[in-house]
Every structure is written in structure tokens, then in C-alpha cells.
């Protein structure tokens, strides 16, 4: 079992930044890969970024590469998503993920 709780969402103007956090509990956090997904209104949930258990491997969707950075702190059982140069198209509910486990999501709204 893995429990995931996201935080850090909010309303920001285009060009601004936000930092999302995901607190994990349950299964040994330091041994599991983690990811972020997002779902915009009327659209399917899509992959945003992922990070390996030891932070050596990261992956990004083309739409966010160069603007978003995923990181983790295994000592604090947290994973972060630093989002810079935000665009209105980034507006969505952002979800933390490991395997079949999902958090409740945090809303990110980018105004133009």
C-alpha cells in the first residue's frame, strides 16, 4: 500500500512558477519510482514526468520538457514538481503516482 498526498497547486499568471509536492507513506519510498500526471477538463489523464528511485533517471512529456523539473527527497518521502514558465495549457489537476496508486490531485490554474 502507498498513500500519496499532493500539495502546492494554485492560481498563477502565465509565465509564473509553482512547486508541487507529494508526500508518500506506506511502501518504502526510497525504492520506488514516482511520477506526475495531469488531467485537464474534458481531456484524458496524461503523463507529465517521472523519476527513478535513486533520482538517476528522469523522463518528461515533450510539452513540459525544459520548463518542469521533477525531483525527490527520499529522506523526507517526498517528490516535487517545479513548474516554470507556466502556460494556460498547463491548467489541470495534477496527480502524484506510483504504479496503481494515485493521490487526490491538486489544481493548477494558469491565467493568460
Instruction: Compute the CA-based radius of gyration.
Output: 13 Å
What fraction of the residues are assigned to beta strands by DSSP? Answer: over 45%
Average residue-wise pLDDT = 95
The low-pLDDT segments are: none
SS-derived structural category: mainly beta
Helical stretch count? 0
Report, as a whole number of angstroms, the end-to-end distance.
40 Å
Helical content (DSSP H or I, runs of 4+): under 10%
Number of strands: 11
The arrangement of helices and strands along the chain is EEEEEEEEEEE
Specify the overall morphology: globular
Largest sheet: 7 strands, mixed
Task: Provide the fold topology.
Blueprint: E1 2-7, E2 10-13, E3 18-26, E4 34-39, E5 46-51, E6 58-60, E7 68-73, E8 78-83, E9 92-98, E10 101-102, E11 106-111
Parallel strand pairs: 2-11
Antiparallel strand pairs: 1-3, 3-8, 4-5, 4-9, 5-6, 7-8, 9-10, 9-11
Which key terms come to mind for this protein?
seven-stranded mixed beta sheet; mainly beta; 112 residues; four-stranded antiparallel beta sheet; 54% strand
Can you tell me about this structure?
This protein has 112 residues and is mainly beta. 0% of the residues lie in helices and 54% in strands. It has no helices and eleven strands. The strands form two sheets. Strands 2, 4, 5, 6, 9, 10 and 11 form a seven-stranded mixed beta sheet that branches. The protein has a four-stranded antiparallel beta sheet with strand order 1-3-8-7, with no helix packed on it. The termini are far apart. The mean pLDDT is 95.
Amino acid at each position: 500500500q502507498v498513500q500519496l498526498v499532493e500539495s502546492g497547486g494554485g492560481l498563477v499568471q502565465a509565465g509564473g512558477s509553482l512547486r508541487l509536492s507529494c508526500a508518500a507513506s506506506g511502501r518504502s519510498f526510497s525504492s520506488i519510482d514516482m511520477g506526475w500526471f495531469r488531467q485537464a477538463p474534458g481531456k484524458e489523464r496524461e503523463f507529465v514526468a517521472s523519476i527513478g528511485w535513486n533520482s538517476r533517471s528522469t523522463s518528461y512529456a515533450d510539452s513540459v520538457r525544459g520548463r518542469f523539473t521533477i525531483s525527490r527527497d527520499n529522506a523526507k518521502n517526498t517528490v516535487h514538481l517545479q513548474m516554470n514558465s507556466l502556460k494556460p495549457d498547463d491548467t489541470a489537476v495534477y496527480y502524484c503516482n506510483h504504479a496503481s496508486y494515485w493521490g487526490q490531485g491538486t489544481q493548477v490554474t494558469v491565467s493568460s
